[in-house]
Design brief:
With 249 residues, this protein is of the alpha/beta class. It contains 13 helices and 5 strands. The protein has a 5-stranded parallel beta sheet, sandwiched between helices. It is globular. It comes from Ruegeria atlantica.
Length: 249
């Protein structure tokens, strides 16, 4: 049996040396065993550094490189005080907040200026190993994971009079449950509603079947259904305009 995830973590026609996972924090939180295990499982360069200042600034050669910068919750103050520095280090890759307590993740989510610096991903450190690896796998594909308890914050966030203007939402986005889904989860749900198999969906979106299954697992949990038929019915009810856009094979 080959190394799990190694073949599917890195997109096709990409050089593994162009990819790296960088854990920012103390050895107490990212042990040598964890670092070695990630590098073995994913087949990418994996390192642990105590501060982002130990990472070189990205250059033009880094454009398109799959760099993942994972920041431990103990670095939250530094992350919020120097957001621009962290975004510059992540470059075109993913910036991720690793947390062990939901309170820390909520604080990071509330304080991070998404309108100015863009979205960051979240990596729970107290979940099952296979779930943890799957989330890392998403991050290597630049798919930012947002836990359900933070998605609820988005759905119920009040509208502020001095907030940055946004475009008029589509009717489907007004549905609070549908709004919890990420962009990729909506894409997967849309294709599931078309009757496509996981294999075809994976091919259409350029991801793996395992990733499709993870997305559908998240979708089912967020919208409260137990099977694909119920998920498709939900989609047709809350997003009829998008459903009509589905091409007929």
């Amino acid at each position: 049996m080959g190394i799990p995830f190694q073949d599917s973590a890195i997109p096709n026609n990409s050089n593994p040396e162009d990819f790296s996972i960088n854990f920012v924090g103390k050895e107490l939180f990212y042990s040598d065993q964890t670092i070695h295990g990630v590098q073995t499982e994913f087949g990418v360069v994996t390192r642990r550094i105590e501060t982002i200042d130990m990472l070189p600034a990205p250059s033009r050669l880094d454009v398109g490189a799959g760099k993942v910068v994972v920041v431990d919750q103990m670095m939250l103050d530094d992350l919020l005080n120097r957001p621009q520095a962290y975004m510059e280090i992540a470059g075109s890759g993913s910036l991720v907040f690793a947390f062990r307590k939901e309170e820390a993740a909520r604080l990071a989510f509330e304080k991070w200026n998404r309108s100015k610096f863009g979205d960051i991903g979240y990596l729970p450190m107290n979940v099952a190993p296979d779930v943890w690896q799957s989330i890392l796998r998403l991050l290597l594909h630049e798919e930012l994971y947002l836990p359900c308890f933070l998605a609820d914050c988005v759905a119920h966030a009040p509208t502020l009079s001095n907030s940055v203007p946004v475009s008029t939402p589509r009717p489907s986005d007004l549905h609070p449950t549908y709004s919890k889904l990420t962009r990729r989860e909506k894409q997967v749900l849309k294709l599931v509603s078309k009757g496509q198999s996981n294999k075809i969906i994976a091919s259409n979106l350029g991801i793996t079947e395992h990733t499709v299954k993870l997305h559908m697992h998240n979708v089912a949990g967020k919208i409260g259904v137990s099977n694909r038929t119920a998920a498709a019915q939900f989609f047709f009810e809350v997003a009829p305009d998008e459903a009509r856009e589905l091409p007929i094979d």
